[in-house]
């Protein structure tokens, strides 16, 4: 009887439906970055372009996020992709490692654009091919999705200024953090081009890693991940990769992944947790 009950229990467990986790985007350049760069370039040629993309966010004043840098990444194929970054010293910026290398694409040159509402013209523009990816970066799981860009010196002014790195063991759960970027304003390719002249930003609540893993599973969500809620259609979106998540004037996250299903579906967004990488980044400044 005991054997029968054990077998019955195992059979029932195997028959129970398994949780369906959301997939993340791993071919960033092919699926998002390259077409987004082409779309932004075409849109900037229109007189009503703003360069704004964050989904469900608000317009930002030039200089409101002086640490933000747009990235135009020239790939070894000759194509061009788009990402974001954060200036942390006058000659170093941090971004996502997947902005430089994915399974299908490799960066060759990065153009860092700061102090501008547009990517293809204006602002302070410097190039670099010196991108230091985390040695344990995993292109499939996006673990350790962090990179440091070595830049020529950039002078600080009222619209360009580095930000400090968060340190310590604060998990930031429950705080309202700010994200900004040039990424899409929605899941529609045709949406998001407005008549203003600014970047977009959005305030997002940080959630626990347990809540994030309930959506994505324990594959992409590890201790060095920090997640924000994507409720009410407010989130980072395609093209925002590598950009900042900021709380209390400190960088707490680097935009890493979102749901392949879309950025307005209410799913969380994942970032590299800066407190977990503070020592690694600081050693390369």
From TrEMBL:
- Residue ranges annotated for the Peptidase S1 domain, each copy included: 54-285
Which terms under GO biological process does the entry name? Answer: proteolysis
Parts of the chain that traverse the membrane: none
Q: Which GO terms describe its molecular function?
A: serine-type endopeptidase activity
Q: Does NADP show up as a keyword for this record? A: no
Specify the domain of life of the species encoding this protein.
Eukaryota
- Annotated SUPFAM superfamilies: Trypsin-like serine proteases (SSF50494)
- The question of whether Membrane is a record keyword is answered with no
Q: Which UniProt keywords apply?
A: Disulfide bond, Hydrolase, Protease, Serine protease, Signal
Secretion signal, residue range per the UniProt entry: 1-15
- Family to which the UniProt record says this protein belongs: Belongs to the peptidase S1 family.
Give the protein's recorded name.
Answer: Peptidase S1 domain-containing protein
User: What organism does the UniProt record list as the source?
Assistant: Pieris brassicae (White butterfly)
